[in-house]
């Protein structure tokens, strides 16, 4: 009976050990489950963070592509602007040359106009001088004609008077000559 007790006691001890071991395993399983749940939660959190990072990365990639597109567009615009500036510079230089040519032509035209006006003024002055001299000649001519006419009239009068005087007595003629001299 002692054997039986001992077997029974060992059997109980074995059962207790098995129960304890089962409880220990259950406790370990529960602990592992808790750890697994925490790991799943952590994994879910990290997956969420990775998704967020992935989204941010995709947004950054998209933004980068948009920026590269804008940069390319701006480079094209810059190239176009450079070409326009070069054309404008060329046109400006051509316009400056044209302005210089026009200024030279205007200067020449002004000189020709000034010369023409000077010649016209000289012609007017000469014409005025000729007209003035012509009037002077006409006046002198009229004066000479008047003097000739007057001299002729005087001569005719003198001849008439001489005739009259010849006809008058010599004393009267003497008096008349004296009067004329006075």
Whole-angstrom Rg: 72 Å
Number of helices: 2
According to DSSP, the number of beta strands is: 0
Residue share in helix: over 70%
Task: Report the portion of residues in β strands.
Answer: under 5%
Q: Which stretches are poorly predicted, pLDDT < 50 over at least 5 residues?
A: none
Largest sheet: none
The topology string of helices and strands comes to HH
Straight-line distance between termini? 219 Å
Dominant shape? rod-shaped
Q: What is the average per-residue confidence, as pLDDT, rounded to a whole number?
A: 84
User: What count of domains describes the coordinates?
Assistant: 1
- The multimeric state of the shown protein is single chain
Question: Which structural category do the helix and sheet elements fall into?
Answer: mainly alpha
Coiled coil: 57-84
Keywords: Coiled coil
Biased composition (Acidic residues): 151-168
Region (Disordered): 137-182
């Amino acid at each position: 009976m002692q054997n039986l007790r001992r077997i029974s006691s060992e059997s109980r001890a074995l059962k207790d050990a098995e129960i304890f071991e089962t409880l220990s395993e259950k406790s370990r399983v529960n602990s592992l489950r808790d750890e697994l749940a925490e790991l799943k939660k952590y994994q879910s959190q990290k997956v969420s963070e990775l998704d967020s990072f992935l989204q941010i990365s995709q947004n950054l990639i998209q933004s980068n592509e948009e920026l590269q597109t804008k940069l390319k567009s701006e480079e094209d615009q810059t190239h176009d602007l450079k070409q326009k500036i070069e054309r404008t510079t060329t046109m400006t230089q051509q316009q400056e040359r044209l302005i210089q040519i026009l200024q030279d032509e205007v200067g020449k035209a002004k000189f020709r106009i000034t010369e023409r006006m000077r010649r016209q003024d000289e012609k007017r002055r000469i014409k005025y001088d000729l007209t003035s001299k012509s009037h002077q000649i006409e006046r002198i001519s009229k004066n000479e004609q008047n003097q000739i006419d007057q001299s002729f009239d005087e001569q005719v009068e003198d001849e008439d008077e001489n005739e009259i005087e010849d006809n008058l007595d010599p004393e009267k003629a003497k008096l008349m000559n004296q009067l004329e001299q006075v």
